Amino acid sequence: MKTLYIIRHAKSSWEFDLDDHKRPLNNRGLKDADLIGKELKNRINTIDKVISSDAERAKSTAKIILDNLEVDDAIFNLEPKLYDFNGHQVIEVIKNCDDKVNALMVFGHNHAFTSIANLYGSEMIDNLPTAGVIGIQFDIDSWKDVSVGKNILTLFPKDLR
Hints:
By secondary structure, the protein is α/β, with parallel strands linked by helices. The chain has 4 helices and 6 strands. The chain is globular, with a radius of gyration of 14 Å. The relative contact order is 0.24.
């Protein structure tokens, strides 16, 4: 069995004139990421590997959530290919994950993450909101074989406020 958790970055700030890649989280994003992290601590037992887009808003979301989960920094990597909005590179990263990893958490961006949730999940969603989480379990031994799995977690910040 393999379990994939996809987490869209939390709400980012447009307050500063910055390159898209460097946009930070806004106050709501900081609060939502912390809220999601606290809830995930009660819902997720094991994470073997965490990969995040190297965009500032995704890295910051990952750090806040992982601090709540008390995840070892040794299993965390930044991956520039996750700065992807259509999903092709995200799928490539997932399918190339080491098969020793059974629970993978990935932080990134829309529209890619909504598309991937609908491509691989058993339940359709209209939109993966900022700081939203979808967990999908696959009855496979190798990440290369990822296809439609079963949704085991849907968690949005608005459900916790």
